[in-house]
């Protein structure tokens, strides 16, 4: 699928993987809407790429519906959705202060998993109602962001790992449901990517983490995530799969 002239929505588009994905899509000619809880950050990225930036709590049905409607009015029906919005707080199931508060777990699931599903359902409705784009009768593609933690979560990552495993789990049934209408659904599972979350850690911690990546011996670059998104968009045979982007890393 050639994204030139097509409407694309990127959640978490105000920073990190989402911002870099928005830049790659815009550079290829897509009409990009960047959604972020931080509306100012989304608007800053949108101004840079000539797109639309909107504040949006992806876990809210009302906010998601309003954002997708605004994107549709500005750019037409969504043809590319990239779910990058997410949070990654760490907490033990039972710590020094006792059991993990249930609302801590609920919030991670709400933002990461329910937020991804919320935009999936709304963007897919746009795609299914639109006309085919090419001889394959393709109508659109949805790419969500899981994590290496979905299968190799570390101590303290139970909520995060569960949310990302859920994103992996909904990919295949969604792809099967939409296949007959030409909408593809995939997931990218990044390892250690050099986003502000990692780069704000002490240098000693960064060096230790980067040293665990077999090859290349470094953090991934957000641009490498963006380039993978573009390849998925362009390669129609890619469907119903999770692609690891981790330099062969396997969490201990």
TrEMBL record:
Keyword Oxidoreductase among UniProt keywords: yes
Pfam families xref list: adh_short
Residues in Ketoreductase domain copies: 6-199
This protein's record includes keyword Oxidoreductase: yes
GO molecular function, one term: oxidoreductase activity
The entry's keywords: Oxidoreductase
UniProt xrefs under PROSITE patterns: ADH_SHORT
PANTHER family the UniProt entry points to: 17-BETA-HYDROXYSTEROID DEHYDROGENASE 14-RELATED (PTHR43658:SF8), SHORT-CHAIN DEHYDROGENASE/REDUCTASE (PTHR43658)
The protein's name in its UniProt record: SDR family NAD(P)-dependent oxidoreductase
Species in which this protein is naturally found: Pelagibius litoralis
């Amino acid at each position: 699928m050639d994204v030139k002239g097509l409407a694309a929505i990127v959640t978490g588009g105000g920073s990190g993987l989402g911002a870099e994905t928005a830049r790659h899509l815009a550079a290829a000619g897509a009409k990009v809407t960047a959604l972020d809880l931080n509306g100012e950050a989304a608007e800053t990225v949108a101004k840079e790429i000539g797109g639309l930036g909107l504040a949006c709590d992806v876990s809210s049905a009302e906010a998601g519906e309003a954002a997708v409607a605004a994107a549709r009015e500005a750019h037409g029906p969504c043809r590319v959705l990239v779910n990058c919005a997410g949070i990654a707080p760490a907490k033990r199931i039972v710590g020094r202060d006792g059991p993990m508060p249930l609302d801590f777990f609920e919030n991670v699931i709400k933002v990461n998993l329910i937020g991804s599903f919320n935009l999936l359902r709304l963007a897919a409705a746009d795609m299914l109602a639109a006309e085919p784009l090419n001889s394959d009768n393709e109508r659109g593609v949805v790419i969500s962001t899981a994590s290496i933690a979905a299968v190799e979560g570390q101590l303290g990552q139970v909520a995060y790992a569960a949310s990302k495993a859920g994103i992996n789990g909904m990919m295949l049934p969604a792809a099967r449901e939409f296949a007959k209408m030409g909408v593809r659904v995939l997931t990218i599972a990044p390892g250690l990517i050099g986003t502000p979350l990692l780069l704000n850690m002490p240098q000693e911690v960064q060096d230790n983490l980067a040293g665990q990546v077999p090859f290349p011996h470094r953090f991934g670059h957000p641009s490498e995530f963006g380039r993978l998104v573009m390849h998925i968009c362009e390669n129609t045979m890619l469907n119903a799969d999770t692609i690891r982007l981790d330099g062969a890393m396997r969490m201990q």
